[in-house]
Amino acid sequence: MKERVIVGKVWVITNEKSELINDIDTDQIFHNAHLAVTDINLMGQYAFGNLKGWEDFSQKAEKGDMIVAGKNFGCGSSRQQAVDCFISLGISLLICGSFGAIYKRNAINSGFPVISCSVTNSYIRENKVNTGDILEVNLETGKIFDRTTNQEIGGGKPFSKVQMDIYQAGNLFKYGSEI
Amino acid sequence: MGKTIIEKIISNHTRENVAPRRIVWMDLDIRSARDFGGPNVVKNFEREYSGEKVNDPFRTCFTFDLVVPAKNIPYANNQQICRKFAEGQRIKVYDVDRGIGSHILLEKGLCIPGSTVVGTDSHLNILGAVEALGQGMGDQDITFAFKTGKTWFEVPETIKINIKGTFSYPVTAKDLTLAVLKKLGASGALGKAIEFYGEAIENLSLAERITLCSMATEMGAICAVIPPNKAILDYCKQRSENREIEPIFADSDAEYRQFMEIDINGLQPQISVPPRPDNIRDVSEIKEVKIDFAFLGSCTNGRFEDFEVAAEILKGKKVASGVMMSAVPATREVYGELLEKGLLKIFFDAGVIVSNPGCGGCASGHIGMTGKGEVQISTGNRNFPGKQGAGFTYLASPATVAASAVYGEIVSPE
User: Fold this and answer.
1) Pick from B122, B140, B191: which is nearest to A110 by CB?
2) A53 interfaces chain B, CB cutoff of 8 Å
3) A101 closest CB neighbour out of B48, B74, B191
4) CA distance to A13, A38, A49, A81, per residue, from A52 (Å)
5) CATH number, domain at B237?
6) Which of B263, B282, B311 is the last residue of a domain?
7) Residues 6+ apart with CB under 8 A from B146
8) pTM of this prediction?
């Protein structure tokens, strides 16, 4: 039985003005120069390798960490590596304003937790959530609690039934063999 | 409560209750994969379902259209992997000679009004041109679709858009499309379906509906659909060898997320300025921008009618000195019609490079990329940095592209 509540240290993906970065496309997440890489164990090192200001992410991130980013995360062309690179690093959860449709499907089908939540720039300015905070996220209710600032971050969308079923089974194929 | 067109299409393919934002298991009429994504589908299938068969070989196919023919060993190997798998499963392969997969599905009558179609092409929603639900997906989804014939799908809310007014040459369906994209922006229809209505919409030909529906992706929409008129129904009936076809109409009490009216009276030719598809101006506002390359083709403007408009402008003229122009018809059938009706000669005499059909020229496929600083004007649908190389790409109609090629700088078709 997979965890329905995930706890981890968060990276808030901001630009040099401390604003959430929107429209991070799959090529910034996983540069097409590395598309020939098919071994998931070798993908983690390239995560965010093409995202300005975050090129060294794979060296800083630790297993169990979470990511908070802006809207339309994972837009652009479909590539499974853009999901797998985070799985490879052991990232436990993505919390984004919204996701590119195909990216979101790819993540859900891989059993990789993703949650939509409009974390706004004011949350960051008001120190409601910052890089390094410990977040507690309930996948079933969508409730996001920042243990470091002791504040709830509203607006998290809970997992859909299909998303939870696939997550519990492990991935789309394992889920399919059960139905 | 009444249903929108998309809600009806989904209802016809599931036993579950259909309402916006509900996720249902949807039956798929067509399960396809391209040479892009296809090899991973095969690898997944052989790993997860070793020794097993696809759910329905008659509803499953490969359409090779990205790098056709293969230009290097990895692509060649990938296409071979798909062919071998197809042979073992008795699945049809529309091979490197055929052209853009989504267009093939229409020409072969495989996709008709009300069809549900998935594939590894993010522009598969182009099939809304015949009132079908097409969706591009990743290789895991497509593998699962090959095996089970189903996918999980969130029912989208629908936006109803009424187009007020009409247009005539030199304004074309591509200009109408860019005007709609300008109004909506890159996320104006995010995650939603669109239904288009209006006098101008009803009169759109298949090629024009394809142009409009192809850029639903750039509007962030799940898809855009247009109720078919008699011409579209006749085409689909003829192509599908008289399959049963029923057009789908939204119920009068269907519930929409939003109503929008876009007035196109006085619309002028439009152009999308890099680095984003929704950065749109009137062509007349672009002054003294020299071009290095012109491209005619893509799933958005690759039909015979698009080429016919360009040929009218290029007839008896030449592409400007210092400018290269390429043309990629959508399919072999379109190429054949260009050949038969003498248009290939017009393009050849004008100095145009005419290539075999496919997605090349738009998606870093087999035809042409721009170098650093190179300025391209294209009838494609995307102009993000790096999409077609290191240069700058403007998006416009076939008429604007042809006129600009002759003058060597961006000009309106007049």
Assistant:
1) B140
2) no
3) B191
4) 11, 24, 8, 19
5) 3.40.1060.10
6) B263
7) B31, B33, B41, B45, B54, B55, B60
8) 0.93
Model confidence at A77, pLDDT cuts 50, 70, 90, reads: confident
Contact: A27, B44; criterion CB under 8 Å? no
B222 to A176: CB separation less than 8 angstroms, yes or no: no
Look at chain A and report how many structural domains it folds into.
1
CA atoms within 13 A on the CB side of A105: 25
Q: Which chain A residues contact residue B188 at CB under 8 A?
A: none
Please list every residue in chain B whose beta carbon sits closer than 8 Å to the beta carbon of residue A36. 74
For residues B80 and B64, is the Cβ–Cβ distance under 8 A? no
Examine the domain organization and report whether B283 and B372 are in the same domain. Answer: yes
Q: Which residues of B touch A76 (CB under 8 A)?
A: 384
| B194 neighbors B158 (Cβ within 8 angstroms) | yes
Select the residue from A38, A109, A159 to test the B interface by mutation, using most B Cβ atoms within 10 A.
A109
Spatial separation of the C-alpha atoms in residues B142 and A65, rounded to whole Å: 30
Note the pLDDT tens digit of each residue in B227-241.
999 999 999 999 999
Residue pair B9/B114 in contact (Cβ under 8 Å)? The answer is yes
CB–CB of B150/B28 below 8 Å?
yes
ipTM of the assembly?
Answer: 0.91
Output the DSSP codes for B289-302.
-B-SEEEEETTTS-
Range of the structural domain that residue A27 is part of: 5-178
In B, which residues are within 8 Å of A161 by CB distance? 23
CA dist B408 and B291 (Å) reads: 6
Strands (E), B12-157: 23-27, 30-34, 60-63, 92-94, 116-119, 133-136, 150-154
DSSP state of B331: B
B138 to A109: CB separation less than 8 angstroms, yes or no? yes
Kindly state the tokens that stand for A9: 């240290």
What distance lies between CA B154 and its chain's CA centroid? 22
Domain housing B228: 158-263
Within 8 A of B144 by CB-CB distance, chain A residues are 109, 172-173, 176
Asked if A160 has any chain B CB less than 8 Å from its own CB, the reply is yes
Local confidence band at B392 (pLDDT 50, 70, 90 cut-offs):
confident
Tell me the C-alpha distance between B243 and B222, whole Å. 27
- Per-residue pLDDT at A97 exceeds 80: yes
Helix (H, G, I), strand (E, B) or coil at B52: coil
Q: To which residue do tokens 């169990």 refer?
A: A64
CB nearest to A106's CB, from B122, B140, B152? B140
Whether pLDDT at B365 is above 70? no
CB-facing half-sphere around the CA of B293: CA atoms within 13 A? 26
Q: Is A173 on the interface with B (CB under 8 A)?
A: yes
Which single residue is written with the structure tokens 């009618």? B305
**Tens digit of pLDDT for each residue in B101-125?**
999 999 999 999 999 999 999 899 9
Q: Does A33 touch chain B (CB under 8 A)?
A: no
Residue ending a domain, choose from B263, B293, B317: B263
